[in-house]
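CORE FACILITY INTAKE
Project code: CF-77B
Contact: R.S. (postdoc)
Sample description: multi-component assembly, two entities in total
Requested service: structural model of the whole complex
Turnaround: standard
Below are the sequence entries exactly as provided by the requester. Do not edit them.
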Amino acid sequence: MTQAQNDIPNPAVRRLSLYLRQLELLQKRHVPTVSSSTLASSLSLTDAQVRKDLAYFGQFGRPGVGYEVVSLIQGLKKILGTDRVTHTLVVGMGNLGRALAAYQGFAPKGFQLVALFDMDKSMISKSIDGIKIQPMRQLTQTINRLEIRLAIMAVPADSAQAVADQLVSAGIRGILNFAPLQLRVPADVAVRGLDVAAELEQLSFQANR
Amino acid sequence: MTQAQNDIPNPAVRRLSLYLRQLELLQKRHVPTVSSSTLASSLSLTDAQVRKDLAYFGQFGRPGVGYEVVSLIQGLKKILGTDRVTHTLVVGMGNLGRALAAYQGFAPKGFQLVALFDMDKSMISKSIDGIKIQPMRQLTQTINRLEIRLAIMAVPADSAQAVADQLVSAGIRGILNFAPLQLRVPADVAVRGLDVAAELEQLSFQANR
């Protein structure tokens, strides 16, 4: 990554995923090219916004032709690091963790679930979609052996920080956290929080306007 | 809501949920008051940011004393509309929908799940935590009878727009969408998207820096 990529605003990076979803729909429909204005209007954005966002990352598209769908998909995946398979684990085999472990939508996006962990002994050595649930003490060994980079955490709030600490010391590079609290991790580890109840609160605020 | 509240920047509204989570932790520990700087540092924000955010919504806190935890919680809930119970439904009883239906974390935040729906006949009249799964044709009647305002959608992408259309015409005011596509809804209906694979993409980007 170049230094310049550290200066790209977060919302622009966030929109890359939106562009990618839309382009994948176009690819399914065998659409060969798309203009920035068509791409923009399908996502309720402006033409200028789309062109500006994509310009951060390089030269895409040609005047009068637009973007080639397949090559823009490849370009965006390369930027996001999903042009190759990223090994990913799930910790916490409650309702949500089991649902995430069974979800079929990660692999097509480049994230292969290769290991599952739980703290509860009664869950250990059960399987979900052919992947055995392992005890936490096997975390470091498994992360090293399978070269796992990302972790999805679906554990209760009161054990979340301790689990995050274990993941970090075992070498995990990024954590997607479903527990409703902010994790403290070293600066070189990426964290994103997905708090479903907080999303409902935001929706409540918007719906009450 | 006052006109002024329409001008509040989205990130400030977003942070209200963060403040609320942190204040609820303090309440659990029976902490009576908190300064803006303590609240800020626990969330990796600046003192000035916290004071500015809260100032959008009114007069909170007193110089030298800080914010009273219980009354700030009440104030934030009132702003978010979660000081009263909001009836909420879930559509789509696949793995994720069932996990959300069984999740115990919504009710304490003011969102009571009161109805579940699925398109698949084999799921109909099964129950999750005492709530029967209903067919889609009962949507409008149930929404009216139980005064349901919000909907959580955990349906496949290719049926998501059709389901959203049904929810909107049945009177739903806000939709939390887990399907990986942007829904088109009228301007007076709120929508938020939660695309777990897109969150992993963002994490991948950050972890690769």
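Facility notes:
- Residues 3-80 of chain A form a domain with the Arc Repressor Mutant, subunit A fold (CATH 1.10.10.10).
- The radius of gyration of chain A is 19 Å.
Invoice: internal transfer
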